[in-house]
């Protein structure tokens, strides 16, 4: 297995600015990966994704194995050619969507059998099959080990059992991955919101021989504060030479606070999902263009963002487009949000390099404080 | 009322190649106008519409008066600024959509009262109100008189009554339009598929003092052959110095055959509507990318069309995107179709200029013969 060179260029506190070097191009970190679920970043042309400043995108194994099928993607030249993206691609293992989307899933010690949410047909995913799909068929530059997504909240016994299963599947994933010259594999830390389980998982996964370490099981309803607390309790046990990736995160304030805790990589559907439905993320916080107050607002979405989507379309026009269900409204807002997230990461990287990250963090975390996600259920703490 | 200079540069048979000169730019004819229903050509950026070669777009009075409201568009700077289109815009009168979309419409001699298909609220459209919306509030370069869309098929008595009403409304539209320096108004010929009514209407409308003449009441179910026959029976009575516009037409074969009968302008939702649902129009005829035979077809949509949409996306990828309901599939195919229709018009214009239109017509009409629309009902002929 290749271990991509990860050069850390500047550090401020726990925050790092670096470059992860892959055969398909450099990934400037901290990096936000736009999500190309089914071989497309929804409502964007790939040129827009690239021009936004994204160095890497994410593809979803679950979606692609169901449609058009991983073997078909392989026959069509692999995911890079299929989706017209020549830079690096990270694929997830499929585990998260099996947990969140599929029907009638049955877990066992060796993998998971489930039915497609599209047509009910049966599939099986094991650590080895997930690697085959990601690395051999889709051709991902970075593959993820298959893990079990633990429900949140859950008992400590359940979290421990699930964490051990993921650890076992991580080893099987490594064994299946084998020797590869130009592709790498990341392991995933689990353990829910239990500090000692997180530490145990982080230490064990970090010792297994992966090319990078992901923190899984976050952004599943625990809320912003518990996410930060879990990162505080986990990151010290992930050696600093690894690229460190928090999966499925998040809102701008989550990105800022996770970077402050030493995270290097992120992915989330938020920019495109919220954009499709009328929400724009700006330096002043999120705004919902559906709101009647924008009906005659001729100002742009956010003129501080250097992009036609952000500067050239009036809020009034976008309000009309979104209310009318017009494609262009979703297209422009998904585009703007994608650029905004990349601009945020570029600002974060520059501030770490300049030694001003703490100032940026203080300012943004205060400004965006009311966007913190709350826990989906109350728990005893 | 301004009468835009219409320079006819070349003639072959009845087909003409010319330029309609408007204060916002020249319109090369024969011209196909992309339809920007609600202030957006669906699923396209305006730059793509412009780069496709479109000189003018169409806006729908009915849609815009309901949402966002014509007065609101005026307050926001008019339709050109609102929709980010700086070239000429033609608006329809609203009559066609009142007839095809609205609820509970009540016609009287002075206009039509109807309920919005969006929320049931009541509106009234008269010749004067339609002109106010189009010319004063939206700011159209070319407005259309309000007319009554006659059902097809209909009795001759009904067609005659309806045609006379439209003639009367045409005069009221002219009176309401009054003197304008930079805007013009087109009249509309009706008469269903009755030759003598069409002649009567064409002669009367042509004498009323409009800046251009449209042929209405086609593409309403009569089918390709009846459309051609009606044009044969109508066009001789529309003086050749007018720009002549067939509303709501059509498929590529309709465009070719109507140009051969002396038509200069067209509009139709076909390129974007069919594109959204997976149909691509090519020089070899239409193909439906949803079809399973394209699932592993790595060829582009039509490499003879000089556009990234036509050349850079494999049919296999588009098949996947359309089947998956992904925005990008609709975006790329609407874009390709828009460029294809503009390319077709450019080829038609060049062939008339070169004296080779008859050859082009023979070739394309033969090649596309099986795409001719059939009548929606059988009628005695």
Description:
The structure is a homodimer of 381-residue chains. With 381 residues, chain A is of the alpha/beta class. Chain A folds into 2 domains: 5-268, TIM Barrel; 275-366, no CATH class. Chain A has helices spanning 46-51, 61-66, 70-75, 79-83, 95-100, 127-138, 156-177, 195-206, 223-234, 252-259, 270-276, 308-311, 315-323, 327-354, 357-367, and strands at 5-12, 15-22, 25-29, 31-36, 57-59, 89-91, 103-108, 111-115, 122-125, 142-144, 184-189, 212-215, 244-246, 265-268, 279-282, 285-288. In chain A, the strands form 4 sheets. Chain A has an 8-stranded parallel β-sheet with strand order 6-5-4-14-13-12-11-10. Chain A is globular, with a radius of gyration of 20 Å. The model of chain A has no long low-confidence stretch (mean pLDDT 97). Chains A and B meet through helix 13 and helix 14 of A and helix 13 and helix 14 of B.
């Amino acid at each position: 297995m290749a271990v991509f060179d990860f050069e850390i260029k500047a550090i401020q506190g726990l925050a790092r600015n670096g470059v992860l070097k892959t055969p398909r191009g450099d990934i400037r970190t901290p990096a936000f990966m736009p999500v190309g679920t089914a071989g497309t970043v929804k409502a964007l042309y790939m040129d827009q994704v690239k021009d936004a400043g994204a160095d890497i995108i994410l593809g979803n194994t679950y979606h692609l194995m169901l449609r058009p099928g991983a073997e078909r993607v392989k026959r069509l030249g692999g995911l890079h050619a299929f989706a017209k993206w020549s830079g690096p691609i990270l694929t997830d293992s499929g585990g998260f969507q099996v947990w969140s989307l599929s029907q009638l899933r049955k877990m066992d010690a060796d993998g998971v059998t489930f039915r497609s949410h599209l047509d009910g047909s049966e599939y099986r995913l094991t650590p080895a099959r997930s690697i085959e799909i990601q690395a051999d068929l889709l051709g991902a530059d970075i593959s993820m080990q298959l893990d079990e997504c633990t429900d949140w909240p859950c008992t400590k016994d359940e979290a421990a059992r699930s964490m051990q299963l993921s650890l076992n599947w991580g080893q099987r994933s490594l064994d299946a991955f084998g020797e590869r010259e130009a592709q790498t594999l990341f392991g995933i830390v689990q353990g829910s919101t239990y500090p000692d389980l997180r530490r145990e998982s982080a230490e064990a996964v970090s010792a297994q021989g992966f090319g990078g370490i992901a923190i899984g099981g976050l952004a599943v309803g625990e809320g912003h504060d518990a996410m930060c607390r879990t990162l505080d309790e986990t990151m010290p046990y992930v050696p600093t030479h690894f690229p460190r990736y928090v999966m499925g995160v998040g809102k701008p304030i989550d990105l800022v606070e996770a970077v402050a805790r030493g995270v290097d990589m992120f992915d989330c559907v938020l920019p495109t999902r919220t954009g499709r439905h009328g929400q724009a993320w700006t330096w002043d916080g999120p705004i919902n263009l559906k709101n009647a107050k924008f009906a005659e607002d001729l100002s742009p979405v956010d003129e501080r963002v250097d992009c036609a989507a952000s500067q050239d379309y009036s809020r009034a026009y976008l309000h009309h487009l979104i209310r009318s269900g017009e494609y262009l409204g979703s297209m422009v807002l998904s585009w703007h949000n994608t650029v905004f997230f990349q601009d945020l990461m570029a600002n974060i990287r520059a501030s770490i390099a300049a030694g001003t990250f703490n100032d940026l963090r203080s300012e943004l975390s205060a400004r965006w404080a009311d966007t913190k996600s709350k826990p989906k259920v109350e728990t005893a703490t």
